[in-house]
Amino acid sequence: MLTVTLNSNLNQFTVVSTNYNASNTSVKLLFSNCQGAITEYTVPNAATTFSIASSDPRFADNVYTFQMTITTSTGAKIVETKCYVIKEELKCDSLEFFKNKDIEKSLMYLALDASNNCINCSCTSLCEIYSKLTTTTCNDYSTNCGSTCNKVCTGCN
After folding, report:
1. CATH homologous superfamily of 2-85
2. CA separation for the pair 37, 151 (Å, rounded)
3. What is the mean pLDDT of residues 94-103?
4. CA nearest neighbour of 137 among 115, 154, 112
């Protein structure tokens, strides 16, 4: 199983897999965020952990995807995926969502907040939630007759 942790300075991820084994022939890690930039890493076969450091002072709010492909000594491929959501900026915004009784955004924030403990979450779905949460100016319920209208909100106070 793949686990991902982020240090308290928000500048280094640590990736651990129970499938790390010195006899593996190769271990590749794809690292990306919702904007789609993908970085590929070759992990040493005998590694027990692997770290990814931010080139900026810290990783920005986003949904990060870690996809590890391990090729075993028998040639079998093990693919593990884990999503990690950073929402430091959104924490403050979430108070406004609750205060303004913005049910849709409050629920989206809670979904993102719970996702780091999720074993089988879809990173694509989390990116969709994150994108909607960070680009829509208000909720559909209060302005545009409910989410079935499928309209973009405008003119919210």
Report:
1. Immunoglobulins (2.60.40.10)
2. 29
3. 82
4. 154
